[in-house]
């Protein structure tokens, strides 16, 4: 099946899912277009007819017929703009607001029922896919390209896995490094104090794309650990944002300073640390997977 046929098949499927082809949307007397007009009016105090036409990409004559019907049903009233008498301003009446509220409630109920049939992972995949479609097709979609959230069940395993894969691919580090990450996270999962230790996962389009942890070094010192950004998410500011989250938590937890361990060849991470106010405090020779490395300790006051 070619791409055009795939898109058309999806369109037919989804219009059936949301009931667009029924005589009345959501078992109401309104068509999809009429419901969209009510929605736009219900989410603002008033709207000029020309603004509605542009927002919904409607033929002026078609919109005029919809508004005439709404006016006859007592759902709206129209008046001339006080700024320009040639423009028409449309507002919902109390009856119109009730009609909008009914549509909004029924729509939310149907969506909740659809989501309830899915697992948590299925819901995340669905919303992520919808976000991807919207970002690809809507040039005006300017939502934040990523979100920062606390770890969920399964995320610690993802952190271990991606550290193993990414550092093997980019630096040739072996299973010894992956085992170190696993031990760090096993200790964290077993005994961390949520008042003084925390972790964060960055998501891009609903998929994990980065991580960082703030862990206790001693009573006065926090340690930033396990900063990772997926190659596909680099250049978006994810690493900088994760470090900022870690620093803010460390301050709130009343640490006086924070430190981290990194390596000389991790140039991208070192740039982030330097821009966040860390300074190089110590260098020493080390070894990783049989290769010589230079270990570094960076610190900063909070």
UniProtKB/TrEMBL annotation:
Keyword Endoplasmic reticulum tagged: no
Q: Which UniProt keywords apply?
A: Transferase
Q: What is this protein called?
A: MarR family transcriptional regulator
Which stretches make up the N-acetyltransferase domain?
Answer: 146-300
Domain HTH marR-type, residue spans: 1-142
InterPro entries named in the record:
Acyl_CoA_acyltransferase, GNAT_dom, HTH_MarR-typ, NAT_camello-type, WH-like_DNA-bd_sf, WH_DNA-bd_sf
Statement: the UniProt record of this protein carries the keyword Transferase? yes
Q: Which GO terms describe its molecular function?
A: DNA-binding transcription factor activity; N-acetyltransferase activity
User: One Pfam annotation, family name?
Assistant: MarR_2
Q: Could you tell me which PANTHER family the record lists for this protein?
A: GNAT FAMILY N-ACETYLTRANSFERASE (PTHR13947), LD18367P (PTHR13947:SF37)
Q: Which domain of life is it from?
A: Bacteria
